[in-house]
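To the wet lab folks,

You asked to see what we're planning to order before we commit. Fair enough. Below is the target structure as C-alpha cells, and below that is the sequence we designed to fit it. If anything looks off to you, flag it before the synthesis order goes out.
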C-alpha cells in the first residue's frame, strides 16, 4: 500500500492543532485507519519506543474511514480532520 497525505494548510477548527488532511491511497483495502507516530522526528507517545508496528495499541489508530470515491476506482481518496498534540512535521502510520 502506498499513501500520499496532503496537509490542506487551512480550515483550522477551534485550535491550531486540528486541521484537515487529504489522503490518496494506492493499494490496500478500503476503510483505512491512521495513527500519529512521530512529530518532528520524535515519537508522538513514549510508549511507542522499541515497538514494531504490530505491537502498537489498536486503540491509538483512528476509526475506520471509508473513501469517498466509488468502489473499484483507483486511487482511494478521503479527507480527515486530525488533531495533532503539538506543532511540527507529522509522520502517520496507516493500516486497513
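Sequence we intend to order:
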Amino acid at each position: 500500500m502506498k499513501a500520499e497525505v496532503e496537509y490542506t494548510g487551512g480550515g483550522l477548527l477551534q485550535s491550531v492543532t486540528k486541521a484537515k488532511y487529504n489522503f490518496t491511497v494506492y493499494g490496500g483495502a478500503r476503510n483505512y485507519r491512521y495513527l500519529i507516530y512521530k512529530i518532528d522526528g520524535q515519537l508522538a507517545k513514549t510508549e511507542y519506543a522499541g515497538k514494531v508496528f504490530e505491537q502498537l495499541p489498536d486503540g491509538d489508530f483512528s476509526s475506520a474511514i471509508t473513501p469517498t470515491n466509488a468502489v473499484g476506482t483507483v486511487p482511494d481518496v478521503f479527507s480527515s480532520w486530525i488533531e495533532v498534540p503539538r506543532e511540527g512535521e507529522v509522520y502517520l502510520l496507516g493500516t486497513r
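Structural context that might help your review: The CA atoms of residues 7 and 67 lie 17 Å apart. The chain has a mean pLDDT of 84.

Thanks,
Computational group
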